[in-house]
Amino acid sequence: MKVMIAGSTGVLGRRLVQQFSARGDTVYGLTRSDDGAQRVRTLGGAAVAADLFDAEYMARAVEHVDVVVHAATAIPSKTRTSAADWATNDRIRREGTVALTRYASLVGAQQYIQQSITWVARPDDGAFYDETSPNHPSPVTQSALDGEEIAQEAGDTYGFTASILRFGCFYSADSAHTRQIRDGLLSRRMPISGRGDALMSNIHVDDAASAIVASADSGLGGLWHVVDDQPTSVASLFATLAEKLSAPTPAHIPVWLARLLVGRTTVDLLTISSQTSNSLFKRDTGWAPTYATIDSGLDQLVAAWRNEGALPQLASKTLRRAA
To answer: What does the DSSP 8-state code read for residue 196?
Structure first.
């Protein structure tokens, strides 16, 4: 199988290059820098220096692939964000999807796989939802829904299979957002907003990558939610990670105060339940997550951080601040 991956140097893309290459597939990774190209090659892929938004140039660079994967994002790492902070990510979701689906048509790809997010269908009341539920996009998630629609319409127009994988909340040892939570817990700067009883459907990035590989193997088109087996409350997530880090138990602060400190977008993510299921994707592809629950996934994170020497260093910094 020949696979083109947009976003090949991100936390998801790196795993995709590695997992597809390990199977013996030919993997092309879009990249914009020499460092990114070296990273792709180290993981077993072939680096392609091309503009994500230029379909014709990409088609000249790589003339035939079987599967195109859109795993590119530019999620802001700031806790308080404005519309301007999301502009690049919105462009990648919309214009990037237009270009990549056009590329798929030019090179005769059989399948196009779009990374999306489950929150586009999260109901305002936090009730359970699945692939059949009505969409409820916010200003931040609207571009993800637009990208889905662009991909599905392009599949109908150009004749390739369009596969939309909506992922839950990503976490991994090398994710900037996960590291922010880690550092906040260690420094007592990551309180829980309100009661912390909102449920989150999560997915380890290793499992997100294996789900895309499973989608490519299946060749099926459609829409799926890809999460682990069991939603967890925000309070449980933070408290469990704090315990595994030997960090202080996180405090609770009122929701109104949290909104003043970090803004509505971040607080809504942590106070409105996002509970969905992977049952349809499991049934259709036979995929199953390696980290079925957040507890087993957090064990892997903490072990990885200890191996890289991050935790002793951070812990000593925390003790110096406390002193």
So the answer is: -
Comparing CA positions, the residue from 286, 255, 139, 247 lying closest to residue 192 is 255
- Closest C-alpha among 220, 211, 176 to residue 291: 211
Strand ranges for 111-246 from DSSP E: 111-117, 161-167, 169-171, 192-193, 199-200, 202-204, 222-226, 232-233
CATH of residue 146: 3.40.50.720
pLDDT category of residue 74 using cuts at 50, 70 and 90 = confident
pLDDT digits (tens, 9 = 90+) for 285-323: 999 999 999 999 999 999 999 998 878 554 444 443 443
For residue 235, give both structure tokens.
Answer: 């309070």
Number of domains in the chain: 1
pTM: 0.94
* Nearest by Cα to 116 from 175, 79, 72, 153: 72
304 inside domain: no
SS3 label, residue 286: coil
